Amino acid sequence: MNSSQTRSGAGLALLLLCAANFLDAMDVSTIGVALPAIQKELGMQATSLQWAVSAYVLGYGGFLLLGGRVADLFGHRRVFLWSLGVFAAASIAGGFVDSAPTLIAARLIKGIAAAFTAPAALALLLSVFGEGSARAKALGVFSSTGAAGFVLGMVLGGAATIVSWRATLVMGAPVAILALIVAPFVLPADHKRSGSRPHFDWAGALTITPGLLLFVFGVTNAAADGWQAFATWGSLVAALVLILLFLLVESRHHDPMVPLAMFRRARLSHANAIAALFQGAYVGFQFIATLYYQTVVGWSAFATGFAFALGGVCVMFLAPRFATIGQNRGTTLLMTFGVGLQAISYLFWVLSAGQIDTIVLVAISQLLLGVGYAMTYPSIQVAALSDVSEDQSGLASGMLFASFQIGGGIILAAASAVFSAAPSFGWNPYIAGTAFVAILAAAITLLAAVGPRTSTPRSDAYQAAE
Predict the structure, then answer these.
(1) Is residue 274 part of a domain?
(2) What range does the domain containing 306 cover?
(3) Minimal CA–CA distance to 170: which of 370, 31, 77?
(4) What is the pLDDT of residues 230-263, one digit of tens each?
(5) Which residues in the chain come in under a pLDDT of 70?
(6) What is the number of other CB atoms lying within 10 angstroms of the CB of residue 368?
(7) 182, 283: one domain
(8) Residue 371 and residue 322: Cα distance in Å, rounded?
(9) CA 413, CA 223: separation in Å to the nearest integer?
């Protein structure tokens, strides 16, 4: 095979993996603007309506660590294909739901499938592209499609709702099916392991997976029923017990599901912390801004979704460039400037909402937010994966994606609590909620600034972890 054919094959593989990554991220937010139509047709109570969104996040966040480790043990391509097939089937089934339970079940299954697809896709990308500029560019494109999928999910959901709210559930299926047809021809075969296959850590899986599920459920339920509800604090207490038990199991297991040495890698741990907080701040802002544009300004679901398009376009075009810069020059400064721009965007929104024309408010805040997101998201992925060996890339990817999902749930619950409590103090709930997000973003900027300044050579990283 000549070099041009090799580049062509790598390009097709990247396109396929990016398509899957876009679908996984898009489904987090695409159904949000369709909720009023869903409630009207299915007669869902307001308390159960939010689970149409949250069920996907519950499955996605709860199974990511398991998905990453399963991909490392049983083959990245094999796991990618099977989970993408389940995602396609659940998407099609979503078009035929006739009640709240069947809708929530379809969303939950899609989230679980995404939890296996996402880390396998990122691990496949790392194996297709070698070290250097090729990997940096590929990672930048991959990061930009994930970020754009999340940011543009509301735009696509608003457009699909014009046809039917069911289209928001089904529209990913054709892309997933096409990817399944092409994947066997462009993705590298899984490496055959020499020696005996590692034993799967069932004790670890049976503690961390329900632990994360209960944790995500608890923080999500807090947004709907409050922190005092038994379902909220009971789930969080049970999650804490299971996670502590998991750490005990992993410290004694000869082949743990998550080697505790992973948490001692400075760049990975710092990147995960920034991922959780930065994504959470954005999700909190998106929640409040969406309510403001629909409730106060009176925009339609489509117009509200379209308000986030400028940020998504910035991410699509700028993230690959920033990923290359991060790969070549380090990620700490990029993270710092990126989150700093987001903090400025949130502060601008707080000071300007209701004071200037809403279209100007959206344009300026989304421009700042989009450029900041384009700096931060790929920098986090580059930093997290810079000192991880290929046989642990699926696990590291699962840890990173879990940080994004769980951080989003925690901070959304906190922002919702501020939003709900603000009127009792005589505050504007939209201003108070966004001010909370702005203050948090300023703190995240400081945290990003104290991160590792230089990349650790891969060989040294392996030795340090041993």
Answers:
(1) yes
(2) 259-452
(3) 31
(4) 888 899 999 999 989 988 988 887 777 777 777 7
(5) 1-8, 46-48, 130-132, 151, 193-199, 223-224, 387, 389-391, 453-466
(6) 22
(7) no
(8) 10
(9) 5
State the Cα–Cα distance between residues 274 and 233, nearest whole angstrom: 25
Assign residue 74 the CATH number of its domain: 1.20.1250.20
DSSP designation for 140: H
Closest alpha carbon to 350 in 427, 446, 279, 449: 427
240-249 contact pairs (CB < 8 A, 24+): 241/211, 242/207, 242/208, 242/210, 242/211, 242/214, 243/207, 243/208, 243/211, 243/212, 243/215, 245/207, 245/211, 246/204, 246/207, 246/208, 246/211, 249/201, 249/203, 249/204, 249/207
Q: Let me know how long the chain is.
A: 466
* Ramachandran class of 194: left when φ > 0, alpha when ψ lies in -120 to 50, beta otherwise: beta
pTM over 0.85: no
Residues 6+ apart with CB under 8 A from 102: none
CB burial of 159-184 (b: ≥16 within 10 Å; e: otherwise) equals bbbeeebbbbbbbbbebbbebbeebe
Contact 123, 397 (CB under 8 A): yes
| Contact between residue 364 and residue 348 where contact means Cβ atoms under 8 Å apart | yes
CA 116 to chain CA centroid, nearest Å: 13
On whether residue 203 sits in a domain, the answer given is no
